[in-house]
Amino acid sequence: MNIYDVSEKAGVSIATVSRVINGNPRVSEKTKEKVLAVMGELGYTPNVFARGLGLNSMKTIGIMCADSSDPFLANAVFFIERELRKNGYDSFLCCTGYELKNKQSYLKLLLSKRIDALIIVGSYFLEANQKDNSYIIEAASEVPVILMNGVLNSQNIYCTLCDDYQAVYDATSLFLNQGRKDILFLYTSKSYSSIQKLNGYKAALQDKLHTVNESLIRNCPGDIEDIKTLLLNLEEDGLLFNAVIAAEDLLGVGTIKFAKARGIKIPEELSVIGYNNSLLAKCCEPELTSVDNHVETLSISAVGTLMRVLDGQNVPNKTTISSELITRNTTKF
Fold first, then answer.
1. Beta strand spans in 9-89 (E)
2. Single pTM value for the model
3. What Å distances lie between residue 169 and 199, 299, 306, CA to CA?
4. Residue 113 has what pLDDT?
5. How many of the other CB atoms lie within 10 Å of CB of 116?
6. Dihedral sign, Cα of residue 93, residue 98, residue 103, residue 106
7. Is 250:243 a contact under the CB 8 Å cutoff?
8. CA 267 to CA 262: how far, in whole Å?
9. pLDDT over threshold 50, residue 50
10. Looking at residue 287, what DSSP letter applies?
11. pLDDT 10s digits, 279-317
């Protein structure tokens, strides 16, 4: 049994059931008694709160991220925890890694702590096989789930994300408008975010050149030196490129190291755009032009959405935030 069954049998909205569980005074006594009676009849005890119905919440939110060493994820967790504290909530953080079984295991662990809600940070949690996302959907039948930087269409799941597709479409178009047609696209994973970026890159090429050179799309996991080596090998194999769009700043920095090793002038002979506008973009030489996906704004929006959900308010299932290109010395627009 879950909150949807209670809602259907009681003939009220999910938001009303949430208000009753939350002890919200805006619910009439008659409606409250009706919902509580249905809960008792169905044997439904929400995991969100201490087991006595109508009591205060545990005031604790579960947070899952794949890798706390990732600059974007680390920043997101920092801002999320800051905003939760402002709202009087504590948090449990689980860094799950990238294996599906570990993600599932950690989610079960967080639910066992009787958290009020779950915030999932990063699109690495969205699997290509939709059946592998069922554990998140099942969790949403017990607690509200906030998915940051990804989209999963299901009840009680609320998505907050940057428009990665449009950001890379616009970046690619800027290069094309400069006459740079040999644009190398570098990415590290097949996460939801990476796929959106790749689709934006391809769409811009199709719209302006009516073709996509698949040899200019490269998956290159690894550290900065690995990326540099990959590009040296691609050059030796005769691959020509005069611009690079990197799905992460790390890839952009690796590209800069490649250019320095080969004596290629940036941005005259090779222009580079990174992504995330992380500290890396400002620590390299030349400093890296990068797409700022506004991680702080994303985090504030995600927590704000969650607070409204816990208050029983109706909120949109998807909130999209636009990006901003921060121009530095690896481009000349």
1. 60-65
2. 0.81
3. 8, 24, 30
4. 87
5. 23
6. negative
7. no
8. 14
9. no
10. P
11. 999 999 999 999 999 999 999 999 999 999 998 888 999
